[in-house]
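Here is the promised in-class demo. Please do not try to memorize the tokens; focus on the logic of going from shape to residues.
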């Protein structure tokens, strides 16, 4: 049985209490790993190690050397590509092609992108005149925040964790990562990479465990943590924000969404169907940027629903390494129970079930896995639970609309504000609607496409702050003001 330990000051360590918890495979519910669970002592040790690193060679290291190390991390991940793919596949049960083409390469890229950002960033400087005629130079100086607590979700574990660890390290911080209890494998593996490339001990630390009254809460409450970056549910973010208020620690939050797809009748129909299929069902619908509300202009509504139905019914469930399969299970039975409760609610509230709604028949031991059918509904009012609340499963509700104003109002009628995918061939309308939808990112005739140097984050209850490119510096550094009288 695989054992997963904490990674503290460059060493893998178990828990002082000896406490461990089981990780089950989403594919067949077998226990595949036992994970050390951190108590306050282990979290304390990890924060101390990270603090020590702040005082040592890491703090005084030149930017050039730091950049070299981050490039080496990315190269070592690439060298151990198959190990990362296997670890993430075992934890999530998702198909190999998503791991190989998106999640793991993006994880490696996250180190290079932010190494390049810090290498090239300039600080503002203003020569000033003074009454005595000698002048002054007033400039900004960026310094690391210090110890950053990194709390991660399970849906794209490695990509989302490195999206935070990459810029944190690039800016000279040290980190204590708390991966999701569901997906600890790649965070642990990254410790090996850090040691191989010679990352100073204590720069990268990992503690395992759960949220409340476990590693997550202990880390976010720890006074030695200078800033907290979190990706996960909005409700969890609210709790973490309360913890961060003690000691006035800064937060960066990437949280839930209830994203709208807006399909105008003049769009490229097939491309729009394909994009909504991907955005609603990729990763079994466990994507924060996914589309759970779809609004289709009335003339193409029926045709669109039928085309999406055909695609949803053509998915092939199976193991990640099954070349015939392209569709994985949900992360856990607990999550499937939650998603199924929404499937039931939709029907109770009067939805027309277009397809899905249940559990597929799986052969042999796979019958024990957390499989679920991609599901489409129509006919619900906007007040229905599945239209209002984030489900985080493979499902969407589709509704017709008649005008631009109407669809903008529908799209904005939510407490979330993460993303929109907008389909039209009318350029002026694309710009108009993009400016009016209240979200952090709008895709026009595309989805899940972004240059990592641009700002990423949510509006309303979908997040606080922006990360990506130079925008990450706002959170991962402190900007000091130095004024030198000449
Ligand atoms: P979650 O909020 O349940 O858990 C996320 C992490 O927080 C886990 O590591 C968990 O152990 C920890 N945690 C839970 N309670 C805590 C507490 N009280 N204190 C400290 N830590 C705590 O989220 P999840 O179910 O892992 O992930 C799914 C959610 O993440 C969805 O809402 C999804 O939209 C969101 N998400 C958002 C983005 C984005 O970029 N906006 C990206 C991916 C996922």
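The designed amino acids, position by position:
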């Amino acid at each position: 049985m695989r054992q997963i330990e904490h990674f503290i000051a460059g060493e893998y360590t178990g828990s002082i209490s000896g406490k461990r918890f089981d990780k089950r495979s989403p594919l067949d519910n077998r226990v595949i790993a036992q994970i050390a669970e951190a108590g306050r002592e282990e979290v304390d040790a990890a924060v101390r190690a990270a603090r020590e690193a702040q005082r040592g060679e890491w703090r005084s290291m030149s930017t050039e050397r730091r950049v070299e190390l981050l490039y080496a991390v990315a190269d070592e991940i690439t060298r151990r590509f198959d190990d990362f793919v296997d670890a993430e596949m075992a934890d999530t049960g998702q198909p190999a092609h998503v791991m190989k083409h998106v999640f793991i390469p993006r994880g490696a890229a996250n180190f290079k992108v932010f190494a390049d950002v810090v290498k090239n960033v300039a600080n503002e400087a203003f020569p000033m005149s003074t009454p005595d005629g000698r002048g002054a130079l007033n400039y900004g100086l960026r310094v690391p925040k210090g110890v950053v607590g990194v709390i991660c979700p399970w849906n794209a574990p490695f990509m989302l964790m490195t999206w935070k660890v990459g810029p944190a390290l690039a800016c000279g911080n040290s980190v204590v990562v708390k991966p999701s209890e569901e997906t600890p494998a790649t965070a642990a593996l990254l410790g090996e990479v850090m040691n191989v490339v010679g990352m100073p001990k204590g720069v990268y630390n990992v503690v395992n465990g759960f949220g409340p009254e476990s590693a997550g809460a202990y880390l976010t409450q720890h006074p030695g943590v200078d800033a907290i970056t979190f990706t996960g549910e909005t409700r969890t973010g609210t709790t973490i924000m309360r913890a961060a208020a003690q000691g006035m620690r800064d937060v960066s939050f990437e949280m839930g969404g209830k994203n709208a797809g807006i399909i105008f009748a003049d769009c490229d129909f097939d491309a729009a169907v394909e994009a909504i299929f991907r955005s609603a069902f990729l990763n079994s619908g466990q994507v924060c940027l996914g589309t759970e509300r779809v609004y289709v202009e009335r003339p193409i509504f029926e045709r669109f629903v039928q085309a999406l139905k055909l695609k949803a019914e053509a998915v092939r469930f199976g193991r990640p390494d099954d070349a015939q399969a392209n569709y994985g299970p949900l992360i856990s039975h607990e999550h499937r129970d939650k998603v199924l409760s929404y499937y039931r609610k939709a029907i109770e509230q009067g939805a027309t079930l277009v397809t899905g709604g249940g559990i597929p028949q799986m052969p042999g031991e796979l019958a024990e896995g957390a499989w679920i059918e991609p599901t489409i509904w129509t006919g619900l009012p906007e007040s229905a639970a599945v239209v209002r609340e984030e489900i985080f499963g493979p499902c969407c509700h589709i509704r017709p609309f008649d005008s631009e104003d109407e669809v903008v109002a529908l799209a904005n009628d939510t407490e979330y504000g993460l993303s929109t995918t907008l389909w039209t061939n009318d350029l002026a309308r694309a710009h108009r609607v993009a400016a009016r939808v209240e979200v952090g990112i709008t895709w026009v005739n595309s989805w899940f496409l972004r240059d990592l140097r641009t700002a990423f984050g949510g509006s309303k209850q979908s997040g606080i702050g922006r990360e990506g490119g130079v925008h990450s510096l706002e959170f991962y550094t402190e900007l000091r003001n130095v004024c030198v009288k000449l």
